[in-house]
Amino acid sequence: MSVNKIILLGNVGKDPEVRYFDNGGAVANFTLATTERGYTAANGTQVPDRTEWHNIVLWRGLAEIAEKYVKKGSKIYVEGKIRTRSYDDANGNKRYITEIWGDNMELLDRKPDGQTATPFPQPPVERNAPETVKPAVEVSSQNPPLEKEEGDDLPF
What we know:
mainly beta, five-stranded mixed beta barrel, 1 helix, CATH 2.40.50.140, two-stranded antiparallel ribbon, single chain
């Protein structure tokens, strides 16, 4: 068994380049920057921010969504797999490129009204609103609370 899965959350480095094929398919290519924040070590050593650049490839419907909604600077979440390919450059040298082939993408930018910028209509979600939180099991005379069993000392 093996797994090839990557999750990235970062900022788009350039507008997607989208190409359409004769069969109607589409592919989008753009870069995504992820940054690990710097810090000061206990001994006073300054460790600077470290930014990694990823080559993102989206196919079909995701490519079309990227063309419409993803712009340079957009904050996005991408799930996918790592693919490495090779090609010969103009001088005949073999070059290798590592790409992230996206299977899922979520737009994380905020609109001015505070809504998440997404091309898909989504019902409003109220987080931590007491009136919307309902217990999984209603407690009533027909359904009394569960008693702790002897020897059940789990912390959760």
